[in-house]
Amino acid sequence: MTTTPETHDVPFDQLPPDERLFRMRHSAAHVLAEAVLEMFPEAKYAIGPPVENGFYYDFDLPRPLTPEDLVALEARMRVSIARDVAIRGEQIPKAQAREIFKDQPYKLELIDGIEDDTVGHFMHGDFEDLCRGGHTERTGQVGAFTLDRVAGAYWRGDEHNAMLQRVYGLLFATEAELEAFKVQRAEAERRDHRRLGRELDLFHLDPISPGSPFYHPKGAVLYNALIDYLRDLYLEYDYSEVITPQLFSTDLWKVSGHYQNFGGDMFLFQPEDEGELGIKPMNCPGHCWLFKSGHYSYRDLPLRLAEFTRLHRNERSGVLHGMTRVRSFAQDDAHIYCTPEQFDTEVARFFEMSKRIYADLGLGDPVIRLATRPEKYIGEIADWDAAEALLGRVINEAGYEYVLAPGEGAFYGPKVEFHMRDALGRSWQLSTIQIDQAMPGRFGLEYIGDDGEAHTPLMLHRAILGSLERFIGVYTEHTAGRFPLWLAPVQAMVIPIADRHVEYAEQIRKTLRARGLRVQVDTSNERMGAKIRNAQLQQVPYMLVVGDREQEANAAAVRDRAGGDLGAMPLDAIMAKLIEERDTRALSHEVAPSA
RNA sequence: GCCGCUGUAGCUCAGUGGCAGAGCAGCUGUUUCGUAAACAGCAGGUCGUGGGUUCAAGUCCCACCGGCGGCUCCA
Question: What does the pLDDT look like over A531-544, one tens digit per residue?
Answer without folding.
Answer: 999 999 999 999 99
